[in-house]
What does this fold into?
Amino acid sequence: MKILVIGSGAREHALLWKLAQSPKTEDLYVAPGNAGTGAIAHNLNISPTDIEALAQSVEQYHIDLTVVGPEASLAEGIVNLFHHRGFNIFGPTREATKIESSKVFARELMGKYHIPCASGKVFSSLVPAREYVEQHSLPVVVKADGLAAGKGSIVAQTRGEALEALSDIMERRIFGSAGDKVIIEECLEGKEVSLLAFTDGETVIPMVPVCDYKRALDGDQGLNTGGMGSYSPPLFFGPVDIAEVQHTILEPTMRAMSQEGKPFKGILYAGLMLTSQGIRVLEFNARFGDPETQVILPRLKTDLVDILLAVVEEKLAEVKIEWSDNACVGVVLASEGYPGSYKTGFPIRGWDSLEPEVLAFHAGTKVNEAGEACTAGGRVLTVAGSGKTLAKARAKVYRNIPHLSFEGCHYRHDIAAV
Ligand code: AMP
Ligand code: GLY
It folds into this structure.
């Protein structure tokens, strides 16, 4: 099979790395990819939201299956377009993607179908939202409705912060039309965990659970980022918890989407908080997570192509998905200044010194004129490693990171320090 992956991050590099292991894979393409993906796939210089150009490349290269990484392509309707053209594609339609692209839609769905989430209220104008904040107990969470690159949820400790967030979203419109509506939500407390699941609209099979780290600095300090690291499995979330989430959240959500006329096929990603009152949904995503995928896929024993095809063909019930007992830890190496402004173009060196089993998934990298991989983005690499225990996986990753070097490299030192 010829397979095309959409996206350019370490998530997509990890997908290609896993797809390359399948005997069914004949050739891999990625749009647009990065320096790392270029070593195992053909990089096509097409933006993930230029869905017409992507469809043309499917015809040009005789692609048999397309796998979508970023939510922007899904929200743009890539799956609808490809279905219309008769192409195989893994991911939900634009309508089903609303579970991620509209937090208001997700909240109303959860309310209607009794899926446990934080209590909250939706506002489409500033004045009543402000009044509500004035009366609400603190802390409180302010969320922009639409896609905001993971930055649309603000946990406000003070009324001033909450009012500021409302002004940012609804007055200064920092997220554009994604801020036409906001949700003001009770602030939950507890441990966070993500459970992603494959679903063909009928069958839901959870993956292994995973934790990610969103803040830039050690000890969950600093600004929110696209994700600075992840690990699997979290020891506080076992098989009983997974079964509970499957029965109380994943399956009811999948059924609810079908009942609403938006059958969901692809990855249903539940971001969860384990509160003293029970498990609550914080958010849904409609795709593989980043950097979650970089630690989930090294644990997957089953052929990924078989799973993706089973979803596309609605035969997921026939597939048995097996996971390694090994733990996996991934640490993101970022450019100095990220998530603020940063410089790029610095060569990345030390590849040959990595232990052979250590994985270095590329994100913001490109090949420079000298043929070397150099930095080209905020998040540069995810370094991932497996081990019999979390502690061993963690030790492996952290003893290898210093072998890699680029100017201004920074990373968190406390990923999986549990
Ligand atoms: P979201 O964009 O909804 O995934 O939220 C991003 C992050 O904000 C989550 O990972 C949580 O850390 C935090 N968060 C979101 N909703 C809540 C909530 N209701 N209570 C507490 N923290 C929240
Ligand atoms: N790591 C969270 C996400 O992929 O949205």
User: Anything to note?
Assistant: The chain has four domains: 2-93, 125-180, 191-318, 327-403.
